[in-house]
Amino acid sequence: MNAIAPISKSVSTNPLKMSAPLGAAMAFLGVDGAVPLFHGSQGCTAFALVLLVRHFKEMIPLQTTAMNEVSTILGGADHVEEALLNLKKRMNPKFIGICSTALTETRGEDFEGDLRGVKARRQQELSGTEVVFASTPDFTGALEEGWSKAVSSIVEALVPAGPVEKDATQINVLVGQHLTAGDVEALRDMIELFGLTPIILPDISRSLDGTVPDEWRPMSNGGATLEEIARMNASAATLAIGAHMRAPGQALEAKTGVPTLYFDHLTGLDSCDRLCVELSQISGRAVPARLRRERSRLIDAMLDGHFYFAGKKMAVAAEPDLLLATTQLMHELGAEITAAVTTGSGSAALAGVPAKDVIVGDLGDLEKRAEGVDLIASHSHARQAAARLHVPHLRIGFPIFDRLGAAYRMSLGYAGTRQLIFEIANTIQAAHHDVTPQSLDPFLLRQKEMSA
Hints:
By secondary structure, the chain is of the alpha/beta class. It folds into 3 domains: 20-158, Nitrogenase molybdenum iron protein domain (Rossmann fold, 3-Layer(aba) Sandwich); 167-209 and 216-292, Nitrogenase molybdenum iron protein domain (Rossmann fold, 3-Layer(aba) Sandwich), CATH 3.40.50.1980; 293-430, Nitrogenase molybdenum iron protein domain (Rossmann fold, 3-Layer(aba) Sandwich), CATH 3.40.50. Helices cover 44% and strands 15% of the residues. The protein has helices at 20-28, 42-56, 69-74, 77-90, 102-107, 111-121, 143-158, 181-193, 226-230, 246-256, 269-283, 289-309, 320-332, 363-369, 383-389, 413-430, 437-440, 442-451; strands at residues 3-5, 34-39, 63-64, 95-100, 130-134, 167-174, 197-201, 235-241, 260-263, 313-317, 336-342, 357-360, 375-378, 393-395. The protein has a 6-stranded parallel beta sheet, sandwiched between helices. A 4-stranded parallel beta sheet has the order 3-2-4-5, sandwiched between helices. A 4-stranded parallel beta sheet has the order 7-6-8-9, with helices on both faces. The model has no long low-confidence stretch (mean pLDDT 92).
């Protein structure tokens, strides 16, 4: 088991971590007709909005209560009420997900009480729009924690309680923040091959997948519908993907009695095999021939790819669940994880990271520990560190803003794992320069040194 080293410095250099409210907003965007609302200053919202737009290359309907100096001192309930009424009047969303920020949480407002009062007073004006609150201060947690709290809030607020007649062909899927829209789409396809109907929450594969609608909508264009969420209590089972989805899975099971199956991740042969076995048992069907063939392709890719992984040194910086999925695959193919950096120490996923120790830190910590590695894997903010160290950079996680197609990249399932193996191997190969007679000529090398 590895050791987890907590943050030991008072300043962050080249931050790795993104805020919890941003993670919550991403989760809320996986609901159809949604508008995430930051309860904080305009600056808090602007930074999050820029990152979302640059990553997804889409219109993001992120709004703010626009707290100022006076409301920060006297309280922001009036700002919340005004924001809700304005959004209802101008946009008429089906769903508003409110994310608190450090500004309002530090003040210590009774926000849930204030919101209950607003809903009671404005019941008629807000009719037809569900409003859900998630407590996500910036100073606690990161993307995964914010995402988890948002999903838990949706479950608590919108899923009916109590036992109902179960639909044996319907299952719930609670997807983690580390999965892309492409991953979620691939997971839906796998489940449907077994004759099952998945209700996916949050479903970013239908809201942040880059479609062009026939008409402009000032809210999320697709995602899990409120009707689907209301039927989650009738499912035969729930799949929770990622350690940070354990809390929403427990909340859903406690409220509905639907049994939950937990997966650390769905990258790699063993994880995919377990998923297929569970789906086969739930559906009563054999594993489809298409998936058996994809499994065979993955095994061949692992045989081909291990030549490029064996003995290589890798440095990875990511949110805990993505860190676990990526490093385990690298380790299984023969690589050594010499540096592993993450955003927080509270995740159960960190115990499974195949590294001597896991550092809770930033990209400055990654750079210090990445001397002599063969690959750096992290989001786009690690590109400067990789350039300074002259090391190839594999972009994973959020945000990825200097490459197209970040939302469609896949690392889930047999096909996604195979794709990730090829991408890692090709990134390493592209940086490798074969030795030539000219490069070994001492006279040419001396001339180059003198001319420089």
